[in-house]
């Protein structure tokens, strides 16, 4: 915004010259003010216009700031008070705003409203001041002369017209800012609606096509087995087809669910996240695949970032798995980071076959596969893009066919603090089993609460048969039945040491049961570990808030239970080489 120059209007020596030319000049000032978009622009225009319109030696632009006058800007032959604040009752601009009227002072040393000592170091001998907005003034415009001078009524009228126009300009700026904020809000809403629409398309596509295939496989081979089709030699293959189809269906459901949950920024909880830990977690999750394919995954020392740890582990795991699935046996993957323009740029580079330039953008679109590999859902890279975007970063691919691919993503840094407890974000960690040989020789009583008979049987088989855990198991087919079983055990002076509790049950769900346990002084001591099919972050958070000691995703396993049981003082794990016993500590 160009300022109105002081020289655009000659000094005014007589009232007969001033009014017409000043009003013509004021029109240009009004036009300039109408285009101003912030207070700084308004101040620059007004300070020069106020001085030139009246031929003053100086002009100030004053804003009311609570009970003080803030001298925001000035144009003068020598410095005045720019940037300073004075109490309202101690300066002329304050008197003008408090009394809602203009003032003319031909001799500043003869007027009690002027703090003479403050003016003595300046050139000022006389002044005129008008309020910005006459009703409830929000500021003032001051003119100063180096000689004793009485401004004419016309000059005061012109100065007041400038102040009135300034008032409108300031109000317009406020409206403009409000409008801009509303536009930004609408744009954010539109972006979120677009993201939700994209997620709906992903969900619809998964239902219409990708989930149908494994369902069809399971149903077809199950029918063949039931109808006696095939031969004894082929039936193990049929069961293998069914198992692989079920695994793929579960993977698709989990991936689509995670993808659709990333539309709401309010769910993002940032915390200091050590990317070295995230690389290690990703490698542990991919350990079997890395061994089978003879892959080398290496990394430089990596920084901490402000991010959701589970999301970061997911990004790294997806990028490493992508390199393994699309590369030859023995492919090498290296992870590094460098700081660029204040943000961390992470690189996941491989020496695989590379990606054609035309495909480096397409691979981040949902379900866009470059080959017939069926091990993925076609959402791995789109999921990475969505997570990184949610964190305010971006992700892209640089690659040359035959020379490998380099996936790069940016994230904000974080001030290094004490390393957080890894178990605070993810209850399903894989820590080492601690055997306490001093545990009292009595098996723990475990009550499994689940309404699905198939899940009850799977939990029993996985824990007691496959993982060879020994404990006394009883079953309740619902939350109300479980509460009654707890009360009966108490009446017989027996103790239930651990509840394995499902969430989604008819009637009373798992959360409602947790609330009742916490409200009952005689039952709130019972240790509870959720055993559920839900991977929803909000469910994990709510379970923790309601006092659950852990959260295990079906199917149950000893690997999931280990770190959770170690956090329950009343229970101990004891191994005898053949099995693992869950014991009472006392």
Mind explaining what this structure looks like?
The protein has 586 residues and is an alpha/beta fold. It has 4 domains: 6-177, GAF domain (Beta-Lactamase); 211-263, no CATH class; 272-424, Heat Shock Protein 90 (2-Layer Sandwich); 445-584, 3-Layer(aba) Sandwich (Rossmann fold), CATH 3.40.50.2300. It has helices spanning 15-34, 39-54, 92-99, 116-119, 153-210, 212-226, 235-260, 275-285, 287-293, 309-326, 380-390, 453-466, 479-491, 510-519, 537-545, 558-566; strands at 58-65, 68-76, 85-87, 103-105, 126-132, 139-145, 271-274, 296-299, 304-307, 332-340, 343-350, 395-399, 405-411, 445-449, 469-470, 472-476, 498-501, 527-532, 550-553, 571-575, 580-584. The model is unreliable at 1-14 and 416-440 (pLDDT under 50).
List the helices and strands and how they pair.
Blueprint: H1 15-34, H2 39-54, E1 58-65, E2 68-76, E3 85-87, H3 92-99, E4 103-105, H4 116-119, E5 126-132, E6 139-145, H5 153-210, H6 212-226, H7 235-260, E7 271-274, H8 275-285, H9 287-293, E8 296-299, E9 304-307, H10 309-326, E10 332-340, E11 343-350, H11 380-390, E12 395-399, E13 405-411, E14 445-449, H12 453-466, E15 469-470, E16 472-476, H13 479-491, E17 498-501, H14 510-519, E18 527-532, H15 537-545, E19 550-553, H16 558-566, E20 571-575, E21 580-584
Parallel strand pairs: 8-10, 14-16, 14-17, 15-21, 17-18, 18-19
Antiparallel strand pairs: 1-2, 1-6, 2-3, 4-5, 5-6, 7-9, 10-11, 11-13, 12-13, 20-21
Helix pairs in contact: 1-2, 1-5, 2-5, 5-7, 6-7, 8-10, 10-11
């Amino acid at each position: 915004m160009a300022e109105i120059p002081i020289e655009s209007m000659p000094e005014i020596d007589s009232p007969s010259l001033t009014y017409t030319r000043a009003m013509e000049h004021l029109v240009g000032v009004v036009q300039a003010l109408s285009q101003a978009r912030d207070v700084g622009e308004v101040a620059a225009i007004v300070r020069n216009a106020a001085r030139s319109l009246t031929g003053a030696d100086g002009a100030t632009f004053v804003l009311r700031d609570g009970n003080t006058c803030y001298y925001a800007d000035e144009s003068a032959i020598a410095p005045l008070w720019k940037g300073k604040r004075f109490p309202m009752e101690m300066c002329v601009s304050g008197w003008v705003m408090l009394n809602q009227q203009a003032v003319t002072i031909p001799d500043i040393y003869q007027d009690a409203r002027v703090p003479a000592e403050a003016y003595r170091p300046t050139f000022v001998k006389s002044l005129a001041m008008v309020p910005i907005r006459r009703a409830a003034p929000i500021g003032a415009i001051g003119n100063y002369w180096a000689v004793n001078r009485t401004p004419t009524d016309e000059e005061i009228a012109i100065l007041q017209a400038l102040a009135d126009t300034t008032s409108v300009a300031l109000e317009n700026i406020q409206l403009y800012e409000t409008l801009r904020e509303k536009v930004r809000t609408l744009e954010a809403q539109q972006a979120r609606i677009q993201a939700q629409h994209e997620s709906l398309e992903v969900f619809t596509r998964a239902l219409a096509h990708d989930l149908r295939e494994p369902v069809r496989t399971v149903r077809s081979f199950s029918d063949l087995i039931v109808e006696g089709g095939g031969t004894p030699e082929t039936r193990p293959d049929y069961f293998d087809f069914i198992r692989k189809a079920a695994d793929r269906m579960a993977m698709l459901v989990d991936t689509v669910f995670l993808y659709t949950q990333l539309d709401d920024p309010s769910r993002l909880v940032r915390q200091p996240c050590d990317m070295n830990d995230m690389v290690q977690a990703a490698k542990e999750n991919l350990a079997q695949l890395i061994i089978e394919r003879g892959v080398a995954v290496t990394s430089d020392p990596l920084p901490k970032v402000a991010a959701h740890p589970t999301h970061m582990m997911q990004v790294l795991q997806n990028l490493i798995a992508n390199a393994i699935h699309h590369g030859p046996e023995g492919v090498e993957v290296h992870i590094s980071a460098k700081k660029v323009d204040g943000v961390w740029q992470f690189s996941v580079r491989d020496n695989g076959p590379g990606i054609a330039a035309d495909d480096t953008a397409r691979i981040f679109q949902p379900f866009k596969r470059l080959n017939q590999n069926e091990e993925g859902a076609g959402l791995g890279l789109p999921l990475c893009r969505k997570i990184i975007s949610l964190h305010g970063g971006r992700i892209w691919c640089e690659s040359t066919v035959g020379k490998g691919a380099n996936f790069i993503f940016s994230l904000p840094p974080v001030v290094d603090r004490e390393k957080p407890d890894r178990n605070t974000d993810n209850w399903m960690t894989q820590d080492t089993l601690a055997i306490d040989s001093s545990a009292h020789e009595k098996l723990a009583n475990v009550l499994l609460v689940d309404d699905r008979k198939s899940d009850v049987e799977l939990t029993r088989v996985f824990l007691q048969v496959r993982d060879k855990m020994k404990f006394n198991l009883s079953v309740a087919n619902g939350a109300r039945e479980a509460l009654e079983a707890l009360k009966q055990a108490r009446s017989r002076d027996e103790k239930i040491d651990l509840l394995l509790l499902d969430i989604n049950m008819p009637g009373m769900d798992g959360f409602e049961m947790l609330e009742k346990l916490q409200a009952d002084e005689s039952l709130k001591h019972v240790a509870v570990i959720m055993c559920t099919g839900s991977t929803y972050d909000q469910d994990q958070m709510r379970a923790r808030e309601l006092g659950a000691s852990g959260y295990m995703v079906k199917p149950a396993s000893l690997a999931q239970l280990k770190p959770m049981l170690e956090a329950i003082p009343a229970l101990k794990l004891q191994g005898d080489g053949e099995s693992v016993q869950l014991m009472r500590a006392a």
